[in-house]
Design goal:
Layout: H1 2-22, H2 41-59, E1 72-80, H3 85-93, H4 98-105, E2 109-122, E3 128-134, E4 144-147, H5 156-160, E5 164-169, E6 178-189, H6 195-207, H7 217-221, H8 233-244, H9 256-280, H10 283-298, H11 303-312, H12 315-323, H13 336-350, H14 354-366, H15 387-390, H16 396-402, H17 419-426, H18 432-444, H19 450-465, H20 470-484, H21 489-497
Antiparallel strand pairs: 1-2, 1-6, 2-3, 3-4, 5-6
């Protein structure tokens, strides 16, 4: 596996060396000029037709759902590691006051006047979980409690009537017995989002189909395949092709440039050689058909095989096979997960499967891929490709703000954006003035819940950090300071401390 990864990384290094000899324009991570789109003009044309239909559909749709903010409260946090824990729990269940609790149990305070937010989610085993966490602002520490059982105790009226949210941890070989607790000072609970913000979320759900996912369930159940079994139909087909077209083989690791040249010559003649082969030997189509049927059921597909499927069988089947396997990066420099997503996005566009296309493109934008390791030094090379969305006439600002806002009751499979990656993408928008005004207004809007205002604040800081115009950066920092003053006083002061 290490050898394969080494060869893969070296291939991209050599590719970049050779491309510089023939191309003066700066290239993107996918090999095209940075001024070019990563999708063809024909593909863009097909997608624009779909976007026009979706925009028309959205324009005549009424807002049919009330989106609620995440439960929020102003809180103090304490942890107790000695004393009568049963008595503590009884007192908290009886809503003992915070000051009385501190005096009675000589407890050290660990956080005061913090913003507490409730999150409902599923863990990696698809179990329901509830997490309460404070927002770490300025020098403030983030504290959290996760509940795995009795989730109904933290919903609706059961949560509304609580003054204490706590968890009792039993003694283990590594930890002392303890209680961690939030004391609720005051709460707005979960409140309805104003229509203009709810419509951003609705627009995101309209564009990013919530009934569909990129990968089939079997892609998660069967794990990750890096190659086909030697006895499989897929392997037999690839061996047949490689032998008939004289594909060069790896000899050793001494001269990669010469191998790259030889391999490139073979690749340039591949289509011509296969057409000649197919005209003389029906075995090609027979073996391909058998391999396709096996791969659909048993998996074991790979990029090489999928290329032949898409070229000589059907693009729809090529897409199906790619959606049946996940690619996990071996290291920070491994671009294979992003290339896999790009292939899925292109095939989805070509086969007019918008629901898969946009999710795949947003995954590239948000760099939402698994890797064995991921150093920050590699992040800069992974671009965001917002211009591909803007040329489609999508309302990109509402879309990206819609996947940034958080809500207590999202649609199933609602797409959430990464704060840092979305901010970086927005720094390349063609409408910076409109975007800046919208974000600053949201931060200053007292009718938007505090948690979402803070999220937009973080989004704005990521956006401003990635701008190249120094004058604009300076002007934005001044505008941001004015917007921050409109936040609740405790929050505003904590943010100011971080400056």
């Amino acid at each position: 596996m290490k050898n394969l990864l080494f060869v893969f990384l070296l291939f991209f290094y050599v590719t970049s060396v050779f491309s510089q000899d023939f191309e003066d324009k700066p290239t993107s991570e996918f090999g095209n000029s940075k001024e070019e789109l990563i999708y063809s003009k024909q593909t863009i044309s097909q997608l624009k037709y779909i976007v026009d239909s979706l925009n028309l559909k959205y324009a005549i749709c009424d807002l049919n759902k009330t989106y609620l903010s995440n439960y929020q409260a102003k809180t103090n946090f304490v942890t107790v590691q000695r004393g009568n824990f049963d008595k503590m729990r009884q007192d908290m269940d009886s809503n003992i006051s915070y000051s009385d609790f501190i005096k009675k149990y000589a407890t050290k305070e660990q956080g005061k006047n913090a913003l507490l937010v409730k999150y409902s989610y599923k863990d990696y085993q698809d179990n329901d979980r509830v997490k309460f966490a404070t927002m770490g602002l300025g020098e403030e520490q983030t504290n959290s409690i996760v509940f795995e059982e009795e989730l109904e105790n933290y919903e609706g009226e059961n949560l509304k009537n609580r003054k204490w949210i706590y968890k009792h941890y039993s003694k283990t070989d590594y930890e002392k017995e303890s209680i961690s607790a939030f004391y609720i000072l005051n709460t707005n609970g979960a409140v309805p989002l104003k229509e203009k913000y709810a419509k951003m979320i609705q627009y995101a759900d309209c564009m990013v189909d919530t009934t569909e996912q990129i990968f089939y369930k079997k892609a998660y159940e069967s794990g990750v395949h890096y190659g086909s079994n030697e006895d499989s139909k897929v392997s037999q087909f690839l061996e047949y092709i490689n032998s008939k077209t004289n594909k060069p083989k790896y000899k050793d690791y001494e001269d990669y440039k010469d191998f790259y040249k030889v391999d490139s010559i073979w690749a340039s003649l591949l289509v011509e050689n296969i057409e000649k082969l197919r005209s003389k030997d029906s075995k090609f189509d027979d073996l391909l058909k058998e391999a396709v049927e096996e791969a659909k059921i048993d998996g074991g597909s790979n990029d090489d095989f999928e290329y032949y499927v898409g070229t000589y069988h059907s693009k729809e089947t090529e897409l199906e096979l790619k959606r049946g396997r996940r690619v996990i990066g071996g290291c920070s420099q491994d671009l294979s997960p992003r290339y896999h997503a790009l292939s899925i996005a292109k095939l989805s566009a070509e086969t007019v499967k918008w629901d898969i296309f946009l999710r795949a493109h947003l995954d590239i934008m948000n760099d939402r891929f698994e890797r064995a390791s991921d150093g920050s030094y590699a992040w800069e090379k992974r671009q965001t490709y917002i211009k591909e969305l803007e040329v489609l006439d999508i309302n990109v600002l509402d879309l990206l703000l819609g996947i940034t806002l958080r809500t207590e009751n999202p649609s199933q499979n609602h797409y959430y954006g990464s704060m840092s990656r979305t901010g970086r993408a927005l720094a390349e928008t063609q409408n910076p003035g409109k975007l800046e005004t919208k974000m600053l207004d949201m931060i200053a809007d007292n009718e938007l819940d505090t948690y979402n205002r803070i999220l937009i604040y973080y989004l704005f800081t990521h956006y401003n950090y990635n701008l190249r115009d120094k004058n604009r950066i300076t002007a934005n920092e001044k505008k941001l300071q004015e917007a921050i003053k409109k936040l609740p006083k405790d929050i505003s002061e904590k943010i100011q401390k971080d400056k």
